[in-house]
């Protein structure tokens, strides 16, 4: 406890799933939190996104941990709106030390329109860039940036995550491109920010037990042999990704890595790609 005492952290996509878990874990370690989420659906994305009520619940849980919180509903694709939210929140909380660029969508399906590519890429890469770049004006030496990547996104689309093809459709293509670019982006920016002693690293999870995984489009990706696969059907093949025989990991498993990369314990760790994946990257040859 207390590894982040006195620090302020931004978490995007923080209304539920990995983002909520990261916010709570960092609050438990002493950080005040700026939690950001779109709080509404994106049309090309087939599963429902988090709501304003979800965002408020994350804020309540941070306060329950005894920390200050600013919860803001804004789209990470909107750099102007995002900048205002970040500037105002930093002024209210008195600084910024940690950025967790976590917001993401994965609109799968061969019937997803081309807009699905645009939306996935814009949220998953442009949204990361927007978050990091508006935050840079507030970060000083020993600041830490953590970006959420993806093992599945790093797999070549021709190879696939289920042995039978890549992430499906235009949205899957946009998602995969965004996650591949995050790898190079974090490496390059680490060199740029190194002289200022600001660190940036990426965390690449395998399947995570969140709404992004547990939805009909993802079930279809893992069970293309069935017309309408259920969660139970998909869980037969979820373990294919991992070297360890598990279907998925929990959000807390990534949060532990995020807290480490945000803390002074990793003060000389930068430009790294940390796989929290039960051996999936090894099995898939990444």
Automatic annotation (TrEMBL):
Pfam families with a match to the protein in the record: adh_short_C2
GO molecular function: oxidoreductase activity, acting on the CH-OH group of donors, NAD or NADP as acceptor
Entry keyword annotation includes Acetylation: no
Keywords: NAD, Oxidoreductase
Keyword NAD: yes
InterPro entries noted in UniProt: NAD(P)-bd_dom_sf, SDR_fam, SDR_subfam_1
Signal peptide (UniProt feature, chain positions): none
Coiled coil: none
Family according to the record: Belongs to the short-chain dehydrogenases/reductases (SDR) family.
PANTHER family, per the entry: 3-OXOACYL-[ACYL-CARRIER-PROTEIN] REDUCTASE, SHORT-CHAIN DEHYDROGENASES/REDUCTASES FAMILY MEMBER
Designated name of the protein: 3-ketoacyl-ACP reductase
Organism: Mycobacterium syngnathidarum
């Amino acid at each position: 406890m207390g590894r982040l005492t006195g620090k302020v952290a931004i978490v995007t996509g923080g209304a539920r799933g990995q983002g909520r878990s990261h916010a709570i874990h960092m609050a438990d370690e002493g950080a005040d939190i700026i939690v950001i989420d779109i709080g509404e659906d994106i049309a090309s994305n087939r599963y429902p996104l988090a709501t304003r009520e979800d965002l408020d619940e994350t804020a309540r849980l941070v306060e329950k941990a005894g920390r200050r919180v600013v919860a803001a509903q804004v789209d990470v694709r909107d750099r102007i709106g995002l900048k205002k939210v970040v500037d105002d929140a930093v002024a209210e909380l008195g600084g910024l030390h940690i950025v967790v660029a976590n917001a993401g969508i994965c609109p799968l399906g061969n019937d997803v329109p081309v807009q699905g590519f645009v939306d996935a890429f814009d949220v998953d890469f442009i949204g990361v860039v927007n978050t990091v770049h508006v935050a840079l004006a507030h970060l000083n030496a020993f600041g830490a940036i953590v970006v959420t990547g993806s093992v599945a996104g790093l797999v070549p689309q021709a190879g696939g995550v289920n042995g039978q093809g890549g992430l499906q459709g235009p949205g899957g293509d946009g998602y995969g491109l965004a996650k591949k670019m995050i790898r190079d982006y974090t490496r390059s920016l680490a060199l740029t920010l190194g002289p200022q002693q600001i660190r940036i690293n990426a965390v690449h999870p395998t399947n995570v037990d969140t709404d992004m995984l547990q939805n009909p489009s993802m079930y279809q990706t893992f069970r293309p042999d069935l017309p309408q696969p259920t969660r139970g059907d998909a869980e037969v093949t979820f373990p294919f990704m991992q070297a360890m025989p598990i279907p998925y990991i929990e959000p807390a498993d990534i949060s532990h890595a995020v807290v480490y990369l945000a803390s002074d314990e990793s003060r000389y760790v930068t430009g790294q790609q940390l796989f929290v994946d039960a051996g999936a990257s090894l099995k898939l040859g990444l």
